[in-house]
Amino acid sequence: MHDLTMARSIVDTVLEAAKERGAEEVLEIDLVIGALTLLSREQMDFWVRELLRGTIGEGAEVNIEQQGPEVRCKQCGYRGPVEVSDDPIYHLMAFTPTCPECGSTELEIVAGDECTIRNIRARR
Prior knowledge:
This protein has a single domain (2-123), classed as 2-Layer Sandwich (hypothetical protein PF0899 fold). It has two helices and six strands. It has helices at residues 2-20, 41-52, and strands at 25-34, 61-67, 70-73, 79-81, 107-111, 115-123. The strands form two sheets. Strands 2-1-6 form a three-stranded mixed beta sheet, with helices on one face. Strand 1 (25-34), helix 2 (41-52) and strand 2 form a beta-alpha-beta unit. Helix 1 crosses helix 2 (41-52).
């Protein structure tokens, strides 16, 4: 349901933005989904397309870029990627990454927790 809820929010935002700009048809939607959101790329693609049916966005090309997680360690200063396993347990409990350099869990998430509409291409 997490994927469906987020897809609904994306579709509502896309259609509202298109309407505000007088678009007759949405041609393409570019999304960036962070790995830490635990959103399934395949499910998001399916639900966005499904929710666009019967709207000016029906048939739009949906491009989804997955953003890997990047952190900054408050202990040692490491800044870079961290490994995220695709374990279903993280849908039930919080994922706590550790620093690959020192093992600390005192990390600031720099990237990978976003779900962003990067671009909407439409025709008037």
